[in-house]
Amino acid sequence: MDLGLKGRWALVCAASKGLGRGCAEALVAEGVNVVITARGVEALEATAAALRVQNPAVQVLAVAGDISTEAGRAAALQACPQVDILVNNAGGPPPGDFRDWDREAWLAALEANMLTPIALIKATVDAMAARGFGRIINITSGAVKAPIDTLGLSNGARSGLTGFVAGLARQPALASRNVTINNLLPGAFDTERLQKTLRAGAEKTGQALDAVAARRAAGIPAQRFGTAAEFGAICAMLCSVQAAYLTGQNILLDGGAYPGTF
User: Fold this and answer.
1) Distance separating alpha carbons of residues 226 and 212, to the nearest angstrom
2) What pLDDT, on a 0 to 100 scale, did the predictor assign at position 104?
3) Residue 240: CB atoms within 10 Å
4) For the segment 224-249, what is each residue's pLDDT rounded down to a tens digit?
5) Which residues contact 210 (CB under 8 A, 6 or more apart)?
6) Residue 185: strand pairing partners
7) What does pTM read for this prediction?
8) Degrees (nearest 5) of the Cα angle 155, 158, 162?
9) Angle, nearest 10°, between helix axes 116-131 and 152-168?
10) Is the dihedral of CA 55, 58, 64, 70 positive or negative?
């Protein structure tokens, strides 16, 4: 299926690795020009080079910096001729006990996982509406649907973004102008972050890493972890011209792990 995205421009945040890279790869495959951002210069440039090889017909620009800062956002936005597609993404805050988190910890979580996406939406959404096309994808977490007790910082910040998007996406000034805003909620995907979590579990219990990973995967009806390519494919689908009637939704990708009906 032709998703109708050839020649569009996308800004993909935290795209040097993991799910962000998966989204960038899927969009590049559809003929989308991309600006990718991340803090690590070496990994970012390596990803940009790989994307250029994947589809030499598109432009790939890499902007290193911290997207959670005003300077980082300004640099990324300046590099993008126009933002037709915005993929908001940022690493989650650390787990822990809320009794140990001070005000600064909360502010950092809110800045990265709520306020930064809102700032980027604010900077791009009106121009999208004026052009009559816009797709905004926020990568949040399955914990928005089923909160995890040790991820209070993430639960709070990402749920705040979810509530904001629920109202904004339904504004007629956007929805009637072919601008959609949706959230992608990943469960367990085989990324560097998951591997770090599994290694920590193995070290804590003294078990082999393979055993810890197998037990975690066994708790998922699909009996495996998701891949970044699968995640990116769903992202690209939500950005397509065919998805113009889908907005304000939270799409859970977790291999069936969430046990509820709604």
Assistant:
1) 16
2) 96
3) 16
4) 999 999 999 999 999 999 999 999 99
5) none
6) 252
7) 0.95
8) 120
9) 20
10) negative
Please say whether the beta carbons of 88 and 136 come within 8 A.
Answer: yes
Give the C-alpha separation, 141 to 91, whole Å. Answer: 10
What 110-116 contacts at long range (C-beta under 8 Å, 24+ apart), as own/partner pairs, is 110/156, 110/157, 110/160, 111/68, 112/68, 112/157, 113/140, 113/154, 113/157, 113/158, 113/161, 114/157, 114/158, 114/160, 114/161, 114/164, 116/67, 116/68, 116/73, 116/88, 116/90
Backbone angles phi, psi at 62, to 5 degrees: -110, 130
Three-class SS state of 155: helix
> Which amino acid, residue 24?
A
Contact 153, 104 (CB under 8 A): no
Instruction: Kindly report, residue by residue over 89-106, the tens digit of the pLDDT.
Output: 998 888 889 999 999 999
Query: Which of these, 20, 13, 104, lies nearest to 66 by C-alpha position?
Result: 13
The label of the residue with tokens 């591997």 reads: 195
Q: In this structure, which amino acid lies at residue 51?
A: L
Side-by-side strand order, sheet with 60-64: 60-64, 33-38, 9-12, 85-88, 134-139, 179-186, 250-253
User: What is the 8-class DSSP label of residue 241?
Assistant: G
Helix, strand, coil distribution of the chain in percent, nearest 5: 50, 15, 35
- The count of other CB atoms within 10 Å of the CB of residue 230 is 18
The rounded distance, in Å, linking the Cα atoms of 243 and 247 is: 8
Inter-CA distances, 258 with 19, 129, 144, 186, Å:
20, 35, 11, 11
